[in-house]
Amino acid sequence: MFDIQEELKKLPSKPGVYLMKDENDQVIYVGKAIHLKNRVRQYFQSAKNQTPKVQTMVPHIKEFEYIVTDSEMEALILECNLIKKYRPHYNIMLKDDKMYPYVKVTTNEAFPRVFITRRMEKDKAKYYGPFTDVLAVKETVETLHTLYPIRKCKKNLPKEIGKERPCLNYHMGQCSAPCAEKISQEDYRKLIDNAIRFLDGKHDEIQKQLEALMQEASDNMEYEKAAILRDKIKSIQRISERQKMDNTGLGDCDVIAFVRAFEEGLAQVFFIRNGKMTGREHFTLKASEHMSRSEIMTEIVKQFYSGTAFIPKEILLQEEPLAEEKVLLQEYLSIKRGNKVTLTVPQKGEKHNLVELAWKNAMITFEQFGEKIKREEQRTVGAVEELQKALGLSQKITRIESYDISNTQGFESVGSMVVFEDGRPKRSDYRKFKIKTVVGANDYASMEEVLTRRFRHGLQERENITEKEQKFSRFPDLILMDGGSIQVKAAELVLQRFGLSIPVCGMVKDDKHRTRGLIYQDREVYIPLTSEGFRLVTRIQDEVHRFAIEYHRKLRENKMLHSILDEIPGIGEVRRKALMKYFGSIDKIKSAEVEELLEVSEMNIKAAESVYAFFHPDPPREE
User: Fold this and answer.
1) CB–CB of 2/20 below 8 Å?
2) Strand duo 411-421 + 399-408: pairing
3) At what angle do helices 293-307 and 72-86 cross, to 10 degrees?
4) CATH code given to domain 566-615
5) Which of 151-160, 232-241, 472-481, 584-593 is the least confident region?
6) Quick one: DSSP state of residue 482?
7) pLDDT for 113-124, tens place per residue?
């Protein structure tokens, strides 16, 4: 039995992170402290001086854990990671985790490339973004490759120059083939300089050059060449119009504002790069209505910039962060960026106007999505509450896990685990299991193996909560088994073996194999067929079926793929795996051109031509 008062006496006077847990061993709050002993003890003192949020949370705290760090900065970083991992109820949560695309120019290479990436590294390359319009970014990069024959391959140049023939991109006029010394490094750099000017927004200069070349081609009656140049000019004009924004003169900065109503809210972020607006994004958020606006802004900044690749030198905020957090946040962001970052709450001038504009956009977007948010809330969280009520459960249901087994007459048996949190699928937590100990079509034994592996891994991970790869440590509040009472018994047996108490339900089918209700504690629970709770159960059932069948089909295809690819000269295990990972099916490999096969990192021209020739043999000659 956890004695809170006794454990408070053991707290160290050091910086660290603390995790508050409820009666179901779920983490409900994560916080950091420069002095763990003083900070954690404050929660259990007189409620008179506590904030409304703390007053609401403390009665639910049944135990706590803590992790000592060497500094408050380390505690901040660990706090951000643990909030993302556990998604505690009493921490503010941004609901949309997005990784924005950037355009990367590898100026650190002898023969640079231009491509889209979602990871920004400290590698001396040149990055543009972030961009929120993925299609626009793809069109921009495709236009660049059309304008300038820049290489797309990943060859290590100049080390690999002359080792292979030029690929099809060269013969199609889409690459200048530096790999075969068809262009000098100096001339190739001119192409890259032009590409950089284009990405810098100097479209007028490039357009004038192309217009002059088009006129020259037309005068020389080279109409085909003139038409190609005309199409390039149109592409530039289209991109230029899309990117045309007033120059703010602010350089690189982000602008953040938010609105909220009760526990729902929306944060708006404007991205300004080189003085121009490159995009904007909004995030719905969930925060206790007792949280102050400064608290919310502090958490938005923490969570958003703990995951984003690029941090600008200045961040304009609608609200001041918590006074005790601001200096540490600026230091943390400065370390991530590599030089000084400033958090500013402008009171007047152009910066203030931008914050006001972000706030107005947040208001408009929140009003537009208000009804949609309510409907979605009823469809998800409301459906979970209906399910909880129907089952007569006292504890709150947040996380639901469902399991299914798939095989073909006992062949390649697999298990699947899907996860729903607050009524929404959490695909990052889905897991696949290839059955290892069961032979033949034995769903009961297969399910027992899957659940045993799942909870054994989870308990092992819980022993080391700072471990980076935490795949199973979060346990469900409810388990849904696709089968009936037999599958429920298998699950209950495993949970009993591990000393765990988690409600388990089975899905009851009618004569047409359609779900009509749930079986819980050996009794059938009726759920109205038109209710959101019933619709949630069927969505979970469909999803766990889909995930299991998809994995089973992939294993069967991979087995066939192995046998076919083994017959191709020059394709060993490494290239075979690379092809499987890139294309995913035999049909796609069969229909791939040599150019597409070369996109696979492990393939060279000889291997690509070998694969192509295998699936496209020359027709027999007539005698």
Assistant:
1) no
2) antiparallel
3) 90
4) 1.10.150.20
5) 232-241
6) S
7) 998 887 777 778
Least confidently predicted of 190-194, 250-254, 539-543: 250-254
What 8-state DSSP symbol labels residue 475? P
Domain ranges within the chain, ordered by starting residue: 4-91, 102-243, 253-378, 385-555, 566-615
d(CA 63, CA 318): 36
* CATH superfamily, region 385-555: UvrC, RNAse H endonuclease domain (3.30.420.340)
Helix (H, G, I), strand (E, B) or coil at 264: strand
* 3-state SS class at 194: helix
Mean pLDDT of 463-469: 59
Place of tokens 């977007």: 365
Four-residue CA torsion sign, 529, 533, 537, 540: positive
Token look-up 């901040």 returns 76
E-strand stretches of 399-542: 399-408, 411-421, 424-425, 431-434, 478-481, 504-509, 515-520, 523-526
Helix (H) or strand (E) holding 404: strand 399-408
Render pLDDT for 478-505 as a digit per residue (tens, 0 to 9).
Answer: 999 877 788 899 899 999 999 999 999 9
Residues 6+ apart with CB under 8 A from 621: none
Domain with residues 253-378, CATH architecture: 2-Layer Sandwich (3.30)
Structure-block tokens of residue 41? 């003890």
Q: What confidence category does residue 554 fall into, taking pLDDT thresholds of 50, 70 and 90?
A: low
Q: Do domains 253-378 and 385-555 have the same CATH topology?
A: yes
Note the CATH number of domain 4-91.
Answer: 3.40.1440.10
Q: Which residues contact 202 (CB under 8 A, 6 or more apart)?
A: none
pLDDT score of 373: 65
What pLDDT, in 10s, does the model give residues 156-173? 888 888 888 888 788 877
